[in-house]
Amino acid sequence: MRLYTIALLVSATLASGAAAQPANTHFVVFNAPGPNAAALADKPDIIAAHRAVYRAYADACLTLAGGRLAGATPLGVTIFIADVDEAAIKEALEKDPAVVEGYISLDYRTLEIQMGALPTSRPDCTPKQEAEK
Question: What digits encode the pLDDT tens for the residues 3-38?
């Protein structure tokens, strides 16, 4: 009976269109191996510059989380706060030396939250430049 009730609630939600509108969305960037990825291990300066790009976004309180996904193929992911300037971020990331030189490829996605929740901002975070003043 409980399963039947849940199924009815889900059906009613889908029929009303409520499920079509996610509660909030977040810009997400995936970093995957590029065509020259095998040579990246010998490029510590490129790795440092790549990390600095994402560190700058974190220091500006524009990211919720970022890091590597465990698995056979290295895959980085960064989830940005809601309402970021996606075009500006894409433009900057495309200039990352690791991307320009083909060590890393980028995939841009929108995470449409439909179950659970992520905060839309980082109220606990003070941008590093403001904190240093």
Answer: 544 544 455 555 555 555 556 899 999 999 999 999
68 — alpha (psi -120 to 50), left (phi > 0) or beta? Answer: beta
Using H for helix, E for strand and C for coil, what is the string for 59-81?
HCCCEEEEEEECCCCCEEEEEEC
Tokens coding 103? 């060590």
What are the tokens at 69? 């996904």
Cβ-based neighbours of 84, under 8 Å, separated by 6 or more: 27, 62
What is the spatial distance between Cα 78 and Cα 88, in angstroms, rounded to a whole number?
15
Q: Report the run of H or E that residue 109 belongs to, with start and end.
A: strand 104-112
Q: Which two tokens stand for residue 112?
A: 């449409």
* Contact between residue 64 and residue 28 where contact means Cβ atoms under 8 Å apart: no
Alpha-carbon Rg for the chain, nearest whole angstrom, is 19
pTM for this one? Answer: 0.79
* Beta-bridge mates of residue 66: 78
